[in-house]
Specification:
34% strand, single chain, 7 strands
Length: 183
């Protein structure tokens, strides 16, 4: 079971601003080079977004469909990998004092991934989810919490890499999409 959570230093409405913008998924979904809304109904149930994954010269375009849209608490998606393979991604958003708790739950749903789902795959998914939630936190949290902030220092990759480390490796600065355009 690949479930991961993160406490972020912002209110739930800020989290929903990002979740409801299909063009922002590439800013925080690990492995995604670009994303865009497939139809004007995003993120209504049944609406879809498209995404592109690039690894060297290889590129793949996929589609993610909204299966449940219940703001301000839950968004469930089905990421399609071809016609017969998909994964369920559930994002739960909970107010947590002055912050927000995000719970990410992803599982193979259809196809071969569902047949070969085991502990090793979950271990890889856990690492990916920690990185993804760390990226999401960088998108939604204020740039500088100020000296009086005693807010959470979430687990994940932030402490190891920090914002400067990501920018030094060519990742976009906050407020810009993966394409480098202002968000």
């Amino acid at each position: 079971m690949a479930v991961q959570h993160r406490l972020v230093r912002c209110r739930p409405d800020r989290v929903w601003e990002v979740l409801e913008d299909g063009s922002r998924y590439a800013d925080w979904v690990v492995g995604t080079h670009d994303s865009w809304e497939d139809d004007e109904r995003w993120p209504q149930e049944g609406a879809a977004l498209r995404y592109r994954i690039k690894i060297g010269p290889w590129a793949y375009e996929g589609r993610t469909i909204v299966r449940a849209y219940e703001p301000p608490h839950r968004l469930e998606l089905e990421a399609m990998a071809g016609r017969r393979v998909s994964a369920r991604i559930a994002i739960e958003v909970r107010p947590w004092g002055e912050y927000t708790l995000i719970i990410l739950d992803e599982h193979p749903l259809r196809g071969r991934g569902n047949n070969f789902h085991h502990a090793a795959i979950d271990a890889v998914a856990q690492v990916r989810h920690r990185a993804m939630l760390a990226r999401f936190a960088r998108v939604v949290e204020p740039e500088d919490p100020g000296p009086e902030s005693t807010g959470p220092r979430s687990t994940g990759t932030r402490g190891r890499e920090g914002r400067r480390g990501l920018r030094a490796r060519g990742h976009p600065a906050r407020g810009h999409s993966a394409r480098g355009h202002p968000a």
